[in-house]
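**Backbone shape codes:**
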Amino acid sequence: MDSHIRKTFSLLPILLIIIVFIGLLALFSGRFWDSGEVSKTYATYSDIPNDDGIHTWLPDFFPTQAKDIGASTIVEHDYLQVTFRLEKNAASEFDKTFTVQMSDAGIKFLQNEWITQGWCKLAKVPEEGDDEHFYLIGKATGKAGYIYVLTLISPSRYGDSDKETRENMARYCALQNR
């Protein structure tokens, strides 16, 4: 019996080291897996504070009549996804600003099975100068109006961004003249 207790106590330091290691791993793993995603919601466009960073992401065609706005950004990956709602008249006017239809690949990229139609658009961000950014805009009909999802398709920070934008447009848009 005495030797059994000694074996148990000799394994105790190893067990404690393993427990401490697992605890530290769990504690610090959250820092490495943090996506950096920031999500915010606004009741209406006018509820977005002037100094809110979301203005540096929204394109010049973003409708000021938008309601129930939900925005997610990941700065490190140039990621933006915004969902919002428009009522019938505002939706009709908003839809008229688009000319290029989204392809099936574009709708699939948005990963929302409820989207029934969508568009592609190059646009400027007023806060960002003259550079144009490429957006996908998906639309679905909901009980409370028309629901949209807008996603920024940003080229990588390195390489030929014009070439990458053209490739993304060819992939995600139903272009007539390729």
Observations:
- The CA atoms of residues 139 and 148 lie 5 Å apart.
